[in-house]
Amino acid sequence: MKYYIIAGEASGDLHASNLIKALQKKDVNADIRFWGGDLMQAAGGTLVKHYRDLAFMGFIEVIANLRTILNNIKFCKKDILTYKPDILILVDYPGFNMRIATFAKQKGIKTHYYISPQIWAWKENRIKKIKRDVDEMYVILPFEKDFYEKKHVFPVHFVGHPLLDAIADRKQVSEKSFREKYNLNNKPIIALLPGSRKQEIKKMLSVMLKMIDKFTDYQFVIAGAPSQDYEFYKTFIKSASVKFIANKTHDLLSISYAALVTSGTATLETALFKVPEVVCYKGSAISYRIGKWLVDLKYISLVNLILDREVVTELIQYDFNEKKLKQELTKILDEKHREQLFLDYYDLEQKLGGKGASEKTATLITKDLFLVHQ
Description:
This protein is an alpha/beta fold.
């Protein structure tokens, strides 16, 4: 069978790469063409366009790059028609993917959506488009299935969170060899995860790095995103004591003592590695005001959203400053605070269900596909 997959961000690249591996086990003749990143390319198939050319964050940034986005959509539609897939699999990335879903429906292409758009957070009116344009939905957060079913969207499958697979299946690293390889000292590590997009990193990293002189008993390490080069990060690094490690976020988190994390999937990754964290977010002033008006959520981090209570501190927009970041980092280095966090993280893992999200999704996709072609 021919599969066309679209992922537009680093997290989507990770989850789609594992889905590709699972699809290849279920369908030994799988022919896969995709938009994604290095991990998907390593899993197998043909890369059409890398997500580093697709990721634009915030309302102002999207408007500024509107021509590029529209050209990408036009090219994608043409490429799909040329390839003639048996199935289109969309992975998160709703601004782009929902437009492609509408197009695919018009052309009679079967469309499955893996990792739902977060319409429960904002743009709930997208529910009509999902009902109309998506044939099967696979959700990874426990409350999403109930949300869709209350809106009379069927079928919706809760498959568990793919991060559980990615973490469980990763090759374990020796802390000693990891420190030696990257020339890290013996101090406890505070990981800095400033995001994957340039706009995020510009807003987040300079404030995070101000903690270095205030916490000299710790080794600060920047987790470099696969979509960005070291040369970009270098402009923010003013101290020789901070280290930079690219494309090894999970390995870094596995030996970290604490972390400062930009809001997004990384907040959940950090929690699943049982690392105490402070969640940070800052956008452009206009984007933030628009977002606050449109989004009706108590929390921005997946950890707090899933548990429906404040487990990790969120420093958002004006609260993300040097003074408050120092206060919150001090808290998560305190042993009593850490003990409670670890208990909360255990509850989080239980709520996410067990392993096997990629396997379950691939099974459902191929079963549906083969039934159609019988």
